[in-house]
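Notebook B, p. 112. Complex prediction, attempt 2.
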Amino acid sequence: QSVLTQPPSVSAAPGQKVTISCSGSSSNIGNNYVSWYQQLPGTAPKLLICEDNKRPSGIPDRFSGSKSGTSATLGITGLQTGDEADYYCGTWDSSLSAVFGTGTKVTVL
Amino acid sequence: QVQLVESGGGVVQPGRSLRLSCAASGFTFSSFVMHWVRQAPGKGLEWVALLSYDGTNEYYADSVKGRFTISRDISKNMLYLQMNSLRPEDTAVYHCVRDRPSIQIFDAFDIWGQGTMVTVSS
């Protein structure tokens, strides 16, 4: 079972903003970088954010990441229909394992 | 072009074994931490195993520890996952994944293969 908690779903109209939270503990988020992944239907996940708030080459600046204490947040501005997907946070845990969040489905109304 | 291509999935009976393979291309395979990540049908992502860049350290999820083994063949640019004593709950798509360049054990999963499906059923 996932040790990082995310809301099951979030939604907003096109052009609006959504935020997705990822809650962990001092054994994971509190002491390690957080990354975020987008999984479009039927495809492999794709890295969106690394090292808490850095966007890999090719990722639009509509996607942003932040972290405070044992929680992290992914923000998506200017929401588009192509952003409908599942989003996961991930990090390293002191139990010597990588961990993922429970996943959040983004719906564009 | 950086690419990871998995193979070896299929239908297997509970208790049997299966070996997954991952062909890496477009990057210096021996310099990167590599992982296996799985996703059961309709479920979320689950990390399975990690192999350090120098091949000396392996880490496993508790759910597969003692049953699965991650390994590589640098001469062939291949990553493997030997899966023994398979259980129905191991049914999933298995992705081969590259880690970002970093001095840390883990940074982020930056390149993903499309995955290979493993079904454990009698």
